[in-house]
Fold each of these.
Amino acid sequence: MTFDIAMPLTLFAVTLASLYLNRKIESKLKSTLEEKEFKTRDAVLLVAVMAVMISLIAFFRETVEPLMVLFMFSYSSLLFVFTYVFSNKRWYLAIIPPVAFILPYIFLRGSTLWSLYLINVYGIIFAILITLYIGSLFTWKTTLIFTILLTIMDIILVLITGTMIEAANAARNLNLPVMVAMPVVPLITTAQGIQFMSLGLGDFFFAGLAAIQSFKKYGKNFALASVAAMTVSFFIFEMLLLTYRLTAFPGTLMIICGWLPLVAFKFLKKMLTD
């Protein structure tokens, strides 16, 4: 069996970081967002919007400039908002992180420094920021609805239509940080060079959201167990992918198979003890 420890450990570390940082900053984010929370219809709508956006990106994948502008604007806005909120609304400080992202992208995106290192650094940063920003809007109920619907959408767009793969390739061709790519460890060398495994930012957000809501619902120990279970599940699925040379598989499914059994066990235990 062929296995990899680099990407599972990256997933583990990023999810833990999101969980830890959320405990530190959620109250300030909630006050900024005026204590708003997603309702069921909002969770359903978010999945629908994501599906439409992914389909549009895949359909217009040859239209490079608008796609680049869309991603650059979204990333820069996210960096600006976070810095603005946590610098006590000092706009002159808030413009520094977006500039620190835009300039390297413009001048270094064709370099090895960008394609092997900086793109992953920015990808991890954005994965954490997206989790902290959007994750604060969810409740336990809307998280369950969202994660299940998102997994179904991911299965359809990856395994049935292939739309997710086309959209990811379109963004990857622009050297945008839409995913994190790590070399397989232990190293695997092919005719094309060292083999890498990639995981989309949405999958990191998926795991981070599950961990944060697990902490809120059942406490620290359950949240840590959830992070470990999601990582182990991802490791097993990835091992199967590497061993049987499968090219693409829904990351959300790889993650949720570790989390849902714990949630189901907790729910059944509560039913039996009540």
Amino acid sequence: MMRTQAKVVRWMAALSLASAVVPAAGQDWLSEEGTSRTVVSESGVEIGDPPSPERFADGGEEIVSAPSPLAGAASSTGTAVVEEEGAWGFGDMTGWVADACRYPRDQGPFQQPGLLQVLHDAKCATWTFRGEALLLWRNAPQGLPLYSDLNATTPNGFGATAFDAAQMESTPAAGPRFSIFRTDDCGNAWEYTWFNAANFRSQEATLPTVNGYGMTPPGIFGNLYQPIDTVTSDLSASIWSFELNRWSRWRPNIALLHGYRMLGWGETLSLVDHYQLDPANPAPDFGQDIFGSRTYNSLYGYQIGTDIRLWDRGGWIRIDSILKGGAYYNNAVQSSSYTYQTGPDTFQTAAVRAAGGAASFVGEVGLTGTIPLGQNIALRVGYLGLWLQGLAQPTNQLRGQTITAGGIGTPTTATLNTVGSTVVQGVTLGLEGRW
């Protein structure tokens, strides 16, 4: 009997000692993990099952055959050392799911950490938002001789090319890009990305030379005129894209992706030549021809790709690369016009329009360096390159259809050429936030 009473007394002493080291309200015991966890709650202290008398020997030392309900290692006198995991007790969590992240269970929605605490203290991100500025260049159109030099003639009556479509080099275009990622604890994610860039602009002109130029055969829209004094061009373009992708983690540093993408590419060209209405009376009678063409490509398709982490040693920068490509249906349309001068101050215009479908391809490459600025925000600097194939472009519509002046002919032929291509590339700069 006395032996039993002694055991009870020792058990009560051990329980009193345990209660002395229990933190204030807001801490939960993890008996299965052997550590303590802070519970962001005002509902009181949550304590696991008390130690049974059988867990202590006559000398008061804890028997280590089973994990102690008190966090930490027990001393020889039965005093438990509590290990703290941090202000919010998230430890080495890898996601917001309770099993994966050891997020506090059995708490109502109003007892979870507040939004500001999550943004400040969360170690693993469920949502990722990226906002970036794009500065892009596009290559010149495919080469197409349009006007030739008449001063150094060849046997066919035309000299070297004086103006070619490949001379229309554009200035850079700027625009925004926004991305939202929803990631689960396995590293899989949904991605929503939209960007827009405008205005690629090219303005070119030949040196003014009286009767110095002529249209290179077979001419423009079926017109073959000479002589001409000068030629000017104005070409503009814009691009936009929206994509919805599913990312699947294949390796720790490799993700595969596939999804739906829409992309729009539009161009507008104005080509003007100036000539003398009466070559025998040079000034002040001048005329001009205005050739205009506008194309728009609406691409819809499916793409696949991969994202590879090239460098990440846990330091100040990580480097990622991305490669995507897909087949697209191109709903292309072109409208072309020819405005010609019939008198000193009078003009007439003839126009045609054509539309149709075509198969296109879009490929994308990217290289991005991410520099952490804080626990949940980072700076992103990178390269973006796009290759678009199977496009309707204005310079490719200048031949193959007929738009002539009234009295000489009528707009009899409208065609759609979709063999064009372009490369868009540039730099990106922005921020990434995770919560």
Amino acid sequence: MDDVKQIEVAMIGAGPSALAAAVYTSREHIDTVLFEKGVIGGLAAITDKIDNYPGFDKGIEGMELATKLQNQAERFGATIELAEVSNISSHDNGNVLLETTSGNYEAKAVLIATGSDYKKLGIPGEEEFYGRGVHYCATCDGAFYKDKKVIVVGGGNSAAQEALFLTRFTKDITMLIRSDWSASEVLIDEVEANENIKILKGVTTDEIVANEDRKVEKVIGTNSESGETIEIEADGVFIFIGLKPNTKFLQDTKVELDEIGFIKAGADQKTTIEGVFVSGDVRSGATMQIASAVGEGATAALKIREYLEEKARKAK
């Protein structure tokens, strides 16, 4: 690769895990560059309120937490590049090569902390009307549905939290839960006590239908028990059915992934490429919690420092 830029540590992703790691590496004067193709702060940044992050007794808005993490990392000298990494590979000298939309880089160590993205239903109308009635972020798009009819698909913590958030804008919310709740008891109690949310359990979501003006008007589902077709009027559909790892760029690399696509690693957080570490939600077996992602980022940073010190000793 021509015009390769030399850096000490590259971090792929700029969510809570990578930002926490960058605080640790950069404050020890390790040259650190983070590559982020989307939103700095990841999914945390577009979460309305984070209520279970230690230290914030009244909760904190996701964007505020992401901004604080970013400011802290940058204060110590970390650099954030708004760019997408398309490939990583090993160099003959033991370093790691990265191909990105902002150029090619050679790093002594790499941390992959790309996190996860929203799963899709894969039903008719979902892709066609994305952003025009179909959404995956109530915090981002809920305000468009003031006093309108909204459907929330999912029965986990995210679906429950987003349904509660949407009550700020409308009193007509229907939750479609394919089987039964998988959310925490605290959230279930809160949702079920809210008179603005109607809950339909045992109902699949089969199709999102729009009118001739291409505006979403209803959702077609099926009652799993009776087989009855159900049609529910809606101006907007918010889908929260889980997360998938952001590892597509690793499909043709030597980084080993599990059957779902999460990155395999040992207790040392090392991947199957020398000098490449992993932390946060993209790691196979991760808890999918911001607090643990931040902790893993800090641990990865310390392991990267040890790795760099050992590498320097061997080079003498």
